[in-house]
Amino acid sequence: MKYSPPAAAYARVKAYLKEGLGEGKWPPGTLMPSEAELVAQFGVSRMTVSRAVRELQSEGVVERVQGVGTFAAQPYRASSTLTIRDLHTEIAERGRRHHAEVVFVRQEEVTPQLAQRLGLQVGNAVFHSLIVHFEDGVPLLCEDRYVNPAAAPDYLSVDFTRTTPTEYLLSLAPLWEARYSIEAGRPTPMEAELLKVDGSEPCLIVLRRTYSQGAPVTWVRMVHPGTRYTIEGAFNR
Predict the structure, then answer these.
(1) How far apart are CA 29 and CA 106, in angstroms?
(2) How many other CB atoms are found less than 10 A from the CB of residue 112?
(3) Does residue 40 form part of some domain?
């Protein structure tokens, strides 16, 4: 089978690994190329390689062992998962244009309510960002996010018009445990204004807390206009 590289850098790495797995280049349980080897082979950043491997892990075709490496998954170990992916990736795969407008990124104090949500101490510092994501100029997501400074000390200096918070945080702490809920509800007045929708319009609201090695990373409220967005999943056995 002839390998034809996709356009996106991370997709080239992902396609190479997936094709090799499909052809039996790395049998189940075999140690696959390290991230450093893939960085050198493709001439891309470690973040790009990590993203490709994460997506393969979410599809159940590879397993990552911290401090050891990435292995071809045993077929019986693959499982069904619901993956909430980076919005930029979803939009790009549809052949559409993504851009983000940053309302603010700032440091605040942890409130009692946030302390319960994120597991931080009241009065401690927390990073807070409010960002609106667009697809072909149409607002698709209002992302209200709090971040543990210990997990991402440089968060306030990141240019989130060039990368998304999800992609940036995963590059720092790739091994996540996530707890989330998905519900239908109305946007807050600010969210309605930012999304350019009526305040009574039903929205898809995702609330998510994530942890890395037991430490809190982020709590985020993601609001999508119900008429503009759907969540899709897949089952693999």
Answers:
(1) 45
(2) 8
(3) yes
